[in-house]
Amino acid sequence: MIQFQKGLLAFTLGLMCLLMVSPGTTSAHGTPTAKPVQVFDIQAGKVVKTIENDQQFQQYATDWLASVTGLSPQFTPENKCGYVFRIPLEHPVTIKTGGITVSTTDVFLFYCPDKPASLLVFDAGRKPYILAFKPDLKPFLRKVGLPAA
Q: What does the pLDDT look like over 2-58, one tens digit per residue?
């Protein structure tokens, strides 16, 4: 169990380093906009797509967070399939589940076609939480340009 926790921590820290480097963008009028949505290909080990973070992405993320059913028991950091999507939130969102309360500003969606999707969020102290939720990912996957399983 301790080895799994160390592996999860190392995986999470590596992912954070890769995905947290993107700055916010500026519109043509010079006003700041939300940080972009990023698509991280786990197999390739890099961000393969960056997409403007619009209201529809914000709605997907808040809907997922509203459907959280608890902490995810089946997440394995050794998983080498699929994608991780980072959706920076315009405003912090608070998740309450299983006796924990977490406020977050980013949502990471772990998607592998053959496994249940999971969400990763970090609290203010950068502690990771892997969450199970009830996803309807088909509209989201169409929007980012990936086929649904």
A: 444 444 444 444 454 444 444 444 444 444 457 999 999 988 899 999 999 999 999
CA separation for the pair 32, 131 (Å, rounded): 30
pTM: 0.78
Q: How far apart are CA 65 and CA 94, in angstroms?
A: 9
Please name which of 126, 52, 130, 124 lies closest in space to residue 84, comparing C-alpha atoms: 130
* CB contact set of 127 (below 8 Å; sequence gap of 6+): none
Residue ranges and CATH numbers for the domains of the chain are 2-22+34-144 (3.30.1490)
Measured CA to CA, the distance from residue 11 to residue 132 in angstroms comes to 18
What is the Cα–Cα distance from 98 to 109, expressed in whole angstroms? Answer: 20
Cβ within 8 Å of residue 63, ≥6 positions away: 136
Least-confidence region, from 69-78, 89-98, 124-133: 69-78
Residue 124, sorted as left (phi over 0), alpha (psi -120 to 50) or beta, turns out to be alpha
Helices (H), ranges, 20-149: 55-66, 138-144
